[in-house]
Amino acid sequence: MTTGQQPAHLIIEQFGTVRRITINNPRKKNAINMQAYGDLTDQLNAADRDDSVSVVVLMGFGDFYSSGNDISGILTSNQSVEERLKTSNGKLFNMVKAFYSFSKLLIGVVNGPAIGIAATTVILCDVLYMVDTAYFYTPFSALGLCAE
């Protein structure tokens, strides 16, 4: 059953005590933009507080878990570079914090490639189920950077 108002790039469904959060941006292989970071954080925090939820399943729509960070919104923002960095770093920090402070069972279903920030956050889940074609890739590591 789909629950209430849906965030733009997430599908939220409830099946008994199981809440499923699906990253839903198939046009960009489920890339996650700044709004989706905030929405995912809010959804994880809400599920953690909700007594009717005992398990959260996180997955991507279609054949990709997520292609990582969608920077298109950052590049077209009217904010200064400093403001953009502060905003994006704050949203990323809050999302990662929501993952590692989640007190219930968090299951990641990796239904395809997980790239960049998606690769490094999904491994914070308690349990991972992966299809045979799934893989993790951190592109910044090839440059000797640890941005993910």
TrEMBL record:
Keywords: Isomerase, Membrane, Peroxisome, Transmembrane, Transmembrane helix. The keyword Membrane applies. GO terms for cellular component: peroxisome. It is found in: Peroxisome. It comes from the Eukaryota. One of its GO terms (molecular function) is delta(3)-delta(2)-enoyl-CoA isomerase activity. It holds the Pfam family ECH_1. InterPro entries: ClpP/crotonase-like_dom_sf, ECH/Chromodomain_protein, Enoyl-CoA_hydra/iso. Its main location: other. CDD domains: crotonase-like. The chain crosses the membrane at residues 105-131. The keyword DNA damage does not apply. This is Putative enoyl-coa hydratase/isomerase. It comes from Aedes albopictus (Asian tiger mosquito).
